[in-house]
């Protein structure tokens, strides 16, 4: 299926309800705007100038996405800020479809750095590989390696307090996380959703010993690590560096995740329900 047709099929009027009628120039409907933002990530268009140039060269794509005239580069740039919250709603709606087609047996939670040395809103943070300046993508992926929840924060935000929000409205049998999420509050949050916490013990908290289902954590942690590598290297391709500010970066990353789950739905319908199979569309 063509990329623009796939976007039109999945990002539809159910995912993006119409805006209330307003007086004055109506502008572009937000359904078309959101479709274009998602399409730009699926098509590998790294900045707004590339998006406009691509639509001018491919008038058939512009018409398929619903545009009779190609929007200006600055208009596309404003959409990243204006529709940031809406992109988050569309992503959560699509993750609901993923859960219907592949019921969640386990969730794996982790964060990955989005390095950016020059953004004024970037902060210094730390990973297992050392310090970095930029932002973080916090994600919860299912047993197929597909993202169900995601949050973008400055680089100095600690992982642990974000776990409850990443689990909100989700169901699973097990929740896997590394020692950075080791806290009584997080274990209670996992238990309250009816799942069993499989969280590595942090020796800095003064606790010792192993954990139940430690083998499961060792065997399945690669799912989120694979997701981090593929989504940053193959879907986003460093595109979070160009937009400035947390809001625009969040929108760009979320549009990429929507694109990933869009291709995931197509892949599952074809009987190939895994992140590696999905990645053939954008490697």
Task: Describe this protein's structure.
The chain is an alpha/beta fold. It has 12 helices and 6 strands. Strands 1, 2, 3, 4, 5 and 6 form a 6-stranded mixed beta sheet that branches. A hairpin with a 5-residue loop joins strand 3 and strand 4. The longest helix is centred in the C-terminal third of the chain and has 24 residues, at 246-269. The model has no long low-confidence stretch (mean pLDDT 88).
What's the short story on this structure?
By secondary structure, the protein is α/β, with parallel strands linked by helices. 45% of the residues lie in helices and 15% in strands.
Which short descriptors sum up this protein?
single chain, 283 residues, 6-stranded mixed beta sheet, 12 helices
Shape field: globular
Terminus-to-terminus distance: 16 Å
**SSE order:** HHHHHHEEEEHEHEHHHH
Low-confidence blocks of residues: none
- Main beta-sheet annotation: 6 strands, mixed
Structural class: alpha/beta
Q: Helix segment count?
A: 12
Mean pLDDT: 88
Count of beta strands: 6
What value does the Rg take, in angstroms? 19 Å
Strand content: 15-25%
- How helical, in percent, are the residues? 40-55%
